[in-house]
What does this fold into?
Amino acid sequence: MRPSDGPRPTLPGQLFWLLLAMMVPISAVQAEAPEFAALFAEAGVQGTIVLDRLDGQQIIVHNAARAEQRLPVASTFKIFNTLIALEEGAISGIDEVLPWDGRQHDYATWNQDQTLKSAFAVSCVWCYQRLAERIGAERYRVHLAQADYGRLEEPFVTTAFWLDGSLTISAQEQVRFLRQVIDRRLPYRPETYAGLRAIMLAEEGRDFRLYAKTGWAARATPQIGWYVGYVETAEATWIFALNLDTRDESDLPLRQSLTRASLQAKGIIGE
It folds into this structure.
């Protein structure tokens, strides 16, 4: 009998299970962060923030119940809307000019010609409404379903569904969507992803790059402020999604300041 034909040696039970455990990926455990709770309390606002490490090793959250609650997506949809517009050819690139029609808007920065890059930066509503007319309702349905993005109430207005509360999403879903974007798991062209990345860069520090978009659901009760995106450091990439109840426009800076303070509290970015 050849040695290979005989009974195979077996590992001791404990060693077998230890080796098996090492081979199975370990899911990150979601942990509440008391320091985040202190930051929100100090600011005097109700909200949530989710920090999720891209490699799956750590998830940190404040107010886990709220992080699962769907709220109006507001202008954070411009992240996905940019991808859709570029992929559908509703605009040729981030520098194509969208001519202003001369109508006066509440924000002076909207009252001029825009490119996709500038429209994203100033959160220009009429710019993305014009693109929405070119994209059409049916293509939006396809893209939203493909990405499993939030919840869309039917029927909806093609040029207003992200503004009027028809499209809602949770902080956890925002993070899951951004993970698909960063990993390029959606079936879009490399140029589409590159275009979004170029216009989404919000801040560049000595040791990090932060890509993000604000949102303000001013028609909701209470009004909801959003800040979602991701930050790249030498050590890791962290995805974040923050939302909070806003009393009025004066609370809007809290979106960025609470996110930054949370990232600093965990040592992800410096002072």
Observations:
- The first strand starts at residue 30 and ends at 32.
- The chain has one domain: 27-265.
- Confidence is low (pLDDT under 50) at residues 1-11, 16-26.
- The first helix runs from residue 13 to 23.
